[in-house]
Write a structure and sequence with these properties.
183 residues, Dna Topoisomerase Vi A Subunit, Chain: A, domain 2, 46% helix, hydrolase, 4-stranded parallel β-sheet, elongated, 6 strands, cytoplasm
Length: 183
């Protein structure tokens, strides 16, 4: 598994990267890079590192510059224009898994054994899945931990990919959910 979070432009890019490697992938959705997205990128950079992999075109370079200006410690991975070309469309979503892997290797992506700290059982135990208010609870905890909101599967993936410690998780649970506070 690649340790760093890979930042791409859109959902088709996420799918292409996930075909190539096992990694946490964050889509910025084009120029919609708001403070929430920058916050997630900063948190990922602090915890695991970030690799930016945008389209080899003007828009992709502009997005890359916006991110690099706000989060200067990111790494950069590049695919060649010809690797991302399908007809007149140029983008990461068109690149082969081999081209994406080459770009990530050139960016010195860190490959390590995936450590599973949290399981679906943990989500259910703390009512982050399977309870009527699970969505709200994931929103609250995601904000507190700096990993953002996600459905149960993506929230679980982020807990593990962002290297959230068990202690940090438990402290956030106790802080934000009264029924888990020590009496």
């Amino acid at each position: 598994m690649i340790r760093e979070v890979i930042v791409v432009e859109g959902k088709d890019d996420v799918a292409a990267v996930k075909k190539a490697v096992e990694a946490e992938v964050l889509a910025v959705h084009g120029f919609g890079i708001n403070e929430e997205v920058i916050g997630k990128i900063r948190e990922a950079a602090r915890r695991t590192g970030v690799i930016v992999l945008t389209d080899p075109d003007h828009a992709g370079e502009r997005i890359r510059r916006i991110i690099a200006k706000r989060v200067p410690q990111v790494k950069h991975a590049y695919i060649m224009r010809e690797e991302g070309r399908r007809g007149t469309n140029i983008g990461v979503e068109n690149a082969s898994p081999e081209a994406i892997l080459r770009a990530l290797e050139a960016a010195k992506a860190v490959v390590e054994e995936k450590e599973i700290r949290f399981t679906p059982r943990d989500l259910h135990a703390f009512k982050l899945a399977g309870a009527p208010d699970s969505k709200l609870r994931r929103q609250i905890l995601g904000k507190a931990l700096g990993i953002g909101y996600g459905n149960s599967a993506s929230f679980l993936s982020r807990l593990n990919a962002y290297c959230i410690s068990v202690e940090e998780f438990e402290q956030a649970i106790k802080t934000h959910f009264e029924e888990y506070r020590d009496e």
